[in-house]
Design goal:
By secondary structure, the protein is mostly helical. It is built from 15 helices and no strands.
Length: 278
Protein backbone atom coordinates (compact mmCIF):
# COMPACT_ATOMS: atom_id res chain seq x y z
CA UNK A 1 0.00 0.00 0.00
CA UNK A 2 2.78 2.48 0.88
CA UNK A 3 4.55 1.81 -2.45
CA UNK A 4 1.28 2.21 -4.31
CA UNK A 5 0.66 5.59 -2.67
CA UNK A 6 4.23 6.68 -3.46
CA UNK A 7 3.85 5.59 -7.10
CA UNK A 8 0.60 7.50 -7.39
CA UNK A 9 2.14 10.66 -5.93
CA UNK A 10 5.21 10.43 -8.19
CA UNK A 11 3.04 9.98 -11.27
CA UNK A 12 0.88 12.91 -10.23
CA UNK A 13 3.95 15.08 -9.65
CA UNK A 14 5.42 14.18 -13.04
CA UNK A 15 2.17 14.90 -14.82
CA UNK A 16 1.53 18.26 -13.12
CA UNK A 17 5.15 19.39 -13.42
CA UNK A 18 5.17 18.50 -17.10
CA UNK A 19 2.03 20.57 -17.64
CA UNK A 20 3.57 23.49 -15.73
CA UNK A 21 6.67 23.49 -17.92
CA UNK A 22 4.49 24.16 -20.95
CA UNK A 23 3.13 27.36 -19.36
CA UNK A 24 5.00 30.61 -20.00
CA UNK A 25 3.90 32.02 -16.65
CA UNK A 26 5.57 29.12 -14.82
CA UNK A 27 9.01 30.04 -16.16
CA UNK A 28 8.36 33.65 -15.23
CA UNK A 29 7.50 32.84 -11.60
CA UNK A 30 10.23 30.23 -10.96
CA UNK A 31 13.90 30.79 -11.70
CA UNK A 32 16.02 28.24 -13.55
CA UNK A 33 17.65 26.94 -10.35
CA UNK A 34 14.25 26.09 -8.87
CA UNK A 35 13.11 24.40 -12.10
CA UNK A 36 16.35 22.40 -12.26
CA UNK A 37 15.75 21.31 -8.68
CA UNK A 38 12.29 20.02 -9.61
CA UNK A 39 13.79 18.16 -12.57
CA UNK A 40 16.37 16.59 -10.28
CA UNK A 41 13.65 15.56 -7.81
CA UNK A 42 11.53 14.03 -10.57
CA UNK A 43 14.44 11.86 -11.69
CA UNK A 44 15.30 10.95 -8.10
CA UNK A 45 11.70 9.91 -7.32
CA UNK A 46 11.59 7.85 -10.49
CA UNK A 47 14.79 6.03 -9.56
CA UNK A 48 13.36 5.27 -6.11
CA UNK A 49 10.19 3.95 -7.71
CA UNK A 50 12.18 1.83 -10.13
CA UNK A 51 14.44 0.40 -7.42
CA UNK A 52 11.50 -0.47 -5.17
CA UNK A 53 9.69 -2.12 -8.06
CA UNK A 54 12.71 -4.29 -8.81
CA UNK A 55 13.27 -5.17 -5.17
CA UNK A 56 9.65 -6.16 -4.52
CA UNK A 57 8.83 -7.71 -7.88
CA UNK A 58 6.43 -4.99 -9.04
CA UNK A 59 5.92 -4.02 -12.65
CA UNK A 60 8.17 -1.20 -13.80
CA UNK A 61 6.42 0.85 -16.47
CA UNK A 62 6.21 4.62 -16.78
CA UNK A 63 5.37 4.79 -20.48
CA UNK A 64 2.00 6.33 -19.65
CA UNK A 65 3.89 9.41 -18.51
CA UNK A 66 6.38 9.49 -21.38
CA UNK A 67 5.35 12.92 -22.69
CA UNK A 68 5.48 14.49 -19.24
CA UNK A 69 8.87 12.92 -18.48
CA UNK A 70 10.33 14.07 -21.77
CA UNK A 71 9.29 17.63 -20.95
CA UNK A 72 11.15 17.42 -17.66
CA UNK A 73 14.45 16.28 -19.17
CA UNK A 74 17.10 18.66 -20.42
CA UNK A 75 17.00 19.03 -24.17
CA UNK A 76 20.50 17.71 -24.74
CA UNK A 77 19.84 14.37 -22.98
CA UNK A 78 16.20 13.99 -23.93
CA UNK A 79 16.40 10.91 -26.16
CA UNK A 80 18.59 8.70 -23.97
CA UNK A 81 17.06 9.66 -20.66
CA UNK A 82 13.54 9.33 -21.95
CA UNK A 83 14.28 5.78 -22.99
CA UNK A 84 15.67 4.96 -19.53
CA UNK A 85 12.86 6.60 -17.62
CA UNK A 86 9.90 5.46 -19.65
CA UNK A 87 10.94 1.96 -20.67
CA UNK A 88 9.48 -1.05 -18.91
CA UNK A 89 11.82 -3.66 -17.51
CA UNK A 90 10.26 -6.87 -18.79
CA UNK A 91 10.99 -9.93 -16.72
CA UNK A 92 11.52 -11.80 -20.01
CA UNK A 93 14.32 -9.37 -20.93
CA UNK A 94 16.81 -10.84 -18.53
CA UNK A 95 19.78 -8.76 -19.69
CA UNK A 96 17.96 -5.47 -19.07
CA UNK A 97 16.64 -6.78 -15.78
CA UNK A 98 20.07 -7.85 -14.58
CA UNK A 99 21.58 -4.51 -15.53
CA UNK A 100 18.89 -2.70 -13.56
CA UNK A 101 19.42 -4.95 -10.54
CA UNK A 102 23.17 -4.34 -10.61
CA UNK A 103 22.46 -0.62 -10.08
CA UNK A 104 20.67 -1.23 -6.78
CA UNK A 105 23.81 -1.06 -4.64
CA UNK A 106 23.97 -3.45 -1.68
CA UNK A 107 24.17 -7.22 -2.02
CA UNK A 108 21.07 -7.54 0.14
CA UNK A 109 19.03 -5.28 -2.17
CA UNK A 110 20.27 -7.19 -5.21
CA UNK A 111 19.40 -10.53 -3.58
CA UNK A 112 15.89 -9.36 -2.69
CA UNK A 113 15.37 -7.99 -6.20
CA UNK A 114 16.50 -11.22 -7.87
CA UNK A 115 14.27 -13.21 -5.52
CA UNK A 116 11.26 -10.99 -6.24
CA UNK A 117 11.70 -11.04 -10.02
CA UNK A 118 12.32 -14.79 -10.04
CA UNK A 119 9.13 -15.30 -8.02
CA UNK A 120 7.26 -13.24 -10.62
CA UNK A 121 8.42 -15.61 -13.36
CA UNK A 122 7.54 -18.58 -11.18
CA UNK A 123 4.01 -17.25 -10.64
CA UNK A 124 3.57 -16.81 -14.38
CA UNK A 125 4.69 -20.38 -15.10
CA UNK A 126 3.38 -22.22 -12.04
CA UNK A 127 0.39 -23.77 -13.81
CA UNK A 128 2.75 -25.38 -16.32
CA UNK A 129 4.58 -27.41 -13.67
CA UNK A 130 3.35 -26.84 -10.11
CA UNK A 131 5.71 -29.35 -8.50
CA UNK A 132 8.87 -27.93 -10.09
CA UNK A 133 8.10 -24.26 -9.52
CA UNK A 134 6.92 -24.81 -5.97
CA UNK A 135 10.30 -26.39 -5.24
CA UNK A 136 12.07 -23.32 -6.63
CA UNK A 137 9.80 -21.01 -4.66
CA UNK A 138 10.46 -22.86 -1.42
CA UNK A 139 14.23 -22.64 -1.93
CA UNK A 140 13.95 -18.88 -2.48
CA UNK A 141 11.95 -18.46 0.74
CA UNK A 142 14.52 -20.47 2.72
CA UNK A 143 17.44 -18.41 1.40
CA UNK A 144 15.72 -15.08 2.11
CA UNK A 145 14.77 -16.22 5.59
CA UNK A 146 18.34 -17.28 6.34
CA UNK A 147 19.67 -13.98 5.02
CA UNK A 148 17.23 -11.89 7.05
CA UNK A 149 18.08 -13.86 10.18
CA UNK A 150 21.81 -13.31 9.53
CA UNK A 151 22.35 -17.05 9.17
CA UNK A 152 23.54 -16.54 5.60
CA UNK A 153 25.82 -13.75 4.37
CA UNK A 154 24.24 -11.34 1.89
CA UNK A 155 26.85 -12.14 -0.77
CA UNK A 156 26.22 -15.89 -0.40
CA UNK A 157 22.45 -15.37 -0.58
CA UNK A 158 22.94 -13.32 -3.74
CA UNK A 159 25.08 -16.07 -5.24
CA UNK A 160 22.52 -18.79 -4.45
CA UNK A 161 19.58 -16.73 -5.72
CA UNK A 162 21.36 -16.03 -9.00
CA UNK A 163 21.87 -19.77 -9.36
CA UNK A 164 18.16 -20.44 -8.75
CA UNK A 165 17.28 -17.73 -11.26
CA UNK A 166 19.29 -19.61 -13.89
CA UNK A 167 17.75 -22.94 -12.89
CA UNK A 168 14.23 -21.50 -13.22
CA UNK A 169 15.07 -20.25 -16.70
CA UNK A 170 16.45 -23.67 -17.67
CA UNK A 171 13.77 -25.63 -15.78
CA UNK A 172 16.61 -27.56 -14.17
CA UNK A 173 15.64 -30.51 -11.98
CA UNK A 174 18.51 -32.43 -10.47
CA UNK A 175 16.11 -34.97 -8.92
CA UNK A 176 14.77 -36.13 -12.29
CA UNK A 177 15.57 -39.78 -13.15
CA UNK A 178 17.52 -40.50 -16.33
CA UNK A 179 14.50 -41.98 -18.12
CA UNK A 180 12.77 -38.58 -17.98
CA UNK A 181 15.66 -36.26 -18.81
CA UNK A 182 15.42 -36.65 -22.57
CA UNK A 183 11.62 -36.64 -22.72
CA UNK A 184 10.25 -33.08 -22.56
CA UNK A 185 6.71 -33.34 -21.28
CA UNK A 186 7.20 -36.67 -19.55
CA UNK A 187 9.26 -34.88 -16.92
CA UNK A 188 6.27 -32.61 -16.18
CA UNK A 189 3.95 -35.58 -15.74
CA UNK A 190 6.55 -37.38 -13.61
CA UNK A 191 6.80 -34.53 -11.12
CA UNK A 192 3.08 -33.87 -10.81
CA UNK A 193 1.26 -37.23 -10.90
CA UNK A 194 3.09 -39.19 -8.23
CA UNK A 195 0.62 -38.48 -5.42
CA UNK A 196 -2.19 -40.41 -7.14
CA UNK A 197 -0.14 -43.33 -8.49
CA UNK A 198 1.05 -45.52 -5.57
CA UNK A 199 3.59 -47.92 -7.09
CA UNK A 200 7.29 -48.69 -7.21
CA UNK A 201 9.64 -46.15 -8.79
CA UNK A 202 10.39 -48.44 -11.72
CA UNK A 203 6.71 -49.01 -12.44
CA UNK A 204 5.91 -45.33 -11.95
CA UNK A 205 8.50 -44.28 -14.54
CA UNK A 206 7.14 -46.82 -17.03
CA UNK A 207 3.59 -45.65 -16.36
CA UNK A 208 4.50 -42.00 -16.92
CA UNK A 209 6.20 -42.78 -20.22
CA UNK A 210 3.13 -44.68 -21.37
CA UNK A 211 0.76 -41.87 -20.34
CA UNK A 212 3.04 -39.43 -22.15
CA UNK A 213 2.84 -41.58 -25.29
CA UNK A 214 -0.97 -41.62 -25.11
CA UNK A 215 -1.16 -37.84 -24.74
CA UNK A 216 1.13 -37.32 -27.72
CA UNK A 217 -0.81 -39.81 -29.83
CA UNK A 218 -4.10 -38.07 -29.04
CA UNK A 219 -2.75 -34.52 -29.32
CA UNK A 220 -4.01 -33.55 -32.77
CA UNK A 221 -3.63 -30.02 -34.15
CA UNK A 222 -5.13 -27.47 -31.72
CA UNK A 223 -6.44 -30.30 -29.59
CA UNK A 224 -6.45 -28.19 -26.42
CA UNK A 225 -9.15 -25.98 -27.97
CA UNK A 226 -11.28 -28.94 -29.03
CA UNK A 227 -13.69 -30.44 -26.48
CA UNK A 228 -14.11 -33.67 -28.43
CA UNK A 229 -10.35 -34.17 -28.78
CA UNK A 230 -9.91 -33.72 -25.03
CA UNK A 231 -12.78 -36.10 -24.33
CA UNK A 232 -11.14 -38.80 -26.45
CA UNK A 233 -7.81 -38.22 -24.74
CA UNK A 234 -9.43 -38.62 -21.34
CA UNK A 235 -11.07 -41.90 -22.41
CA UNK A 236 -7.79 -43.34 -23.68
CA UNK A 237 -5.99 -42.46 -20.45
CA UNK A 238 -8.90 -43.88 -18.43
CA UNK A 239 -8.78 -47.17 -20.35
CA UNK A 240 -5.03 -47.42 -19.84
CA UNK A 241 -5.12 -46.69 -16.11
CA UNK A 242 -7.95 -49.13 -15.45
CA UNK A 243 -7.19 -51.98 -17.87
CA UNK A 244 -3.40 -51.94 -17.73
CA UNK A 245 -2.35 -50.34 -14.46
CA UNK A 246 -5.17 -51.46 -12.18
CA UNK A 247 -6.15 -54.83 -13.69
CA UNK A 248 -3.13 -56.23 -15.53
CA UNK A 249 -0.46 -54.90 -13.15
CA UNK A 250 -2.63 -55.24 -10.03
CA UNK A 251 -1.86 -51.74 -8.77
CA UNK A 252 -4.09 -50.75 -5.85
CA UNK A 253 -5.51 -47.58 -7.35
CA UNK A 254 -9.02 -46.30 -6.68
CA UNK A 255 -11.45 -44.88 -9.22
CA UNK A 256 -11.02 -41.49 -7.54
CA UNK A 257 -7.26 -41.66 -7.98
CA UNK A 258 -7.75 -42.60 -11.63
CA UNK A 259 -10.07 -39.62 -12.11
CA UNK A 260 -7.63 -37.23 -10.43
CA UNK A 261 -4.77 -38.56 -12.54
CA UNK A 262 -6.77 -38.04 -15.73
CA UNK A 263 -7.78 -34.50 -14.72
CA UNK A 264 -4.21 -33.57 -13.80
CA UNK A 265 -2.73 -35.11 -16.96
CA UNK A 266 -5.06 -33.31 -19.37
CA UNK A 267 -4.69 -30.01 -17.53
CA UNK A 268 -0.90 -30.26 -17.56
CA UNK A 269 -0.95 -31.16 -21.24
CA UNK A 270 -3.21 -28.18 -21.97
CA UNK A 271 -0.97 -25.79 -20.04
CA UNK A 272 2.04 -27.18 -21.94
CA UNK A 273 0.34 -27.72 -25.29
CA UNK A 274 3.41 -26.45 -27.16
CA UNK A 275 5.35 -29.36 -25.66
CA UNK A 276 2.74 -32.04 -26.21
CA UNK A 277 1.03 -30.79 -29.37
CA UNK A 278 1.80 -31.34 -33.01
Amino acid sequence: PTRAIFDEKVNEFVKVFGECLSLQSFAEKFDSDKIDLYKHEAKKFHNLKRSAALQYGDSVDLRKYELELVKILDENIKAGAAEVLTGEIEITNRDALNRAIEDLGSNKSKAEAIAAQTERRIDQRREQDEALYEKFSQRIKEILEAMHQNKLADIEALKQLRLIDEEVEQKKDSDLPGSMREKPGADILYRNLKAELPMSEEMYEATILEIDAIVRQMATVDWWRNFEAKRKMRLRIDDYLYDVVKVQRSVDISNKQIEKTIDATVLLAENNHAVFGR
